């Protein structure tokens, strides 16, 4: 099978722009507006974001996670604390994330220091998950090698037996992280690649805003 000509793949951007007057002065408010548009547009998993972390040596890794909270305190996602991302965040507690809403020709980038959320918050979110997802969090030794699929399914079956007839308790190795909002950038695609980029940077209890060249 012949590979596609990647250099020839091109899409044009022609949506309305992002002006400072429309962006306002608070990135949390603007993010809420953009997310609402993405949800209303029916975008599949509009809360999916690419999360980049790095180990103590600076070697990066990236994966898709689901954003489960966003407010002035930061952007929240949940995972196994013993996963690769969890181990990297212990060694280097900084991260960057990006949400791409391609149909809307929009991106949002987030940068900041990472901290674990309060145990009570992790408990509440874990309790809201479907039971199967709870069992999966118990069973999976995330990012660790496994011999084959059968071994993994055996771990799931063992976890199901452990919690047969009772609520699944959140394991200590699973919970939430919060990316504090040091910087939030909003990207709006424009014609001829002359895109709009507005970056908000934390300054004390407020924000500074600047336009970046595309």
What does this structure look like?
By secondary structure, this protein is of the alpha+beta class. It has one domain (11-128, 172-212): Pnp Oxidase, Chain A (Roll). It is built from 6 helices and 10 strands, in the order H-H-E-E-E-E-H-E-E-H-H-H-E-E-E-E. Strands 1, 2, 3, 4, 5, 6, 7, 8, 9 and 10 form a 10-stranded antiparallel β-sheet that branches. A hairpin with a 4-residue loop joins strand 5 (94-101) and strand 6 (106-116). Helix 5 crosses helix 6. The longest helix has 14 residues, at 27-40. The protein is globular.
Q: Features of this protein?
A:
about 210 residues, about 35% strand, globular
Q: Would you summarize the structure shown here?
A:
The protein is of the alpha+beta class.
Query: Per CATH, which architecture?
Result: Roll
Q: Figure out the total of helices.
A: 6
Task: Give the strand content.
Answer: 25-35%
Instruction: Tell me the name of the CATH homologous superfamily.
Output: Electron Transport, Fmn-binding Protein, Chain A
- Please compute the radius of gyration using only Cα atoms: 20 Å
CATH topology: Pnp Oxidase, Chain A
Morphology call: globular
Q: Give the ordered list of helices and strands.
A: HHEEEEHEEHHHEEEE
Q: Structural class of the secondary elements? A: alpha+beta
Helix content range of the residues, please? 25-40%
Q: What's the total count of β strands?
A: 10
């Amino acid at each position: 099978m012949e590979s596609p000509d990647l250099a020839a793949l091109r899409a044009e951007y022609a949506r309305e722009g992002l002006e400072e007057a429309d962006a306002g002065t608070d990135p949390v408010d603007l993010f809420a507006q953009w997310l609402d548009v993405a949800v209303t547009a029916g975008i599949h998993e509009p809360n999916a974001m690419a999360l980049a972390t790095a180990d103590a040596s600076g070697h990066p890794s990236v994966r898709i996670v689901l954003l489960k909270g966003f407010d002035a305190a930061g952007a929240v996602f949940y995972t196994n604390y013993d996963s690769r991302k969890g181990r990297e965040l212990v060694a280097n507690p900084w991260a960057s994330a990006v949400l791409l809403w391609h149909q809307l020709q929009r991106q949002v980038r987030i940068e900041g220091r990472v901290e674990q959320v309060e145990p009570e918050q992790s408990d509440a979110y874990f309790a809201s998950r479907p039971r199967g997802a709870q069992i999966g969090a118990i069973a999976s030794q995330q990012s660790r090698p496994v011999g084959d699929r059968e071994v993994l399914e055996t771990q799931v079956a063992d976890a199901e037996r452990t919690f047969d007839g009772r609520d699944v308790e959140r394991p200590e190795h699973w919970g939430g992280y919060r990316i504090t909002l040091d910087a939030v950038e909003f990207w709006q695609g424009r014609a001829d690649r002359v895109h709009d980029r507005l970056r908000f940077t934390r300054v004390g209890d407020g924000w500074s805003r600047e336009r970046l060249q595309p």
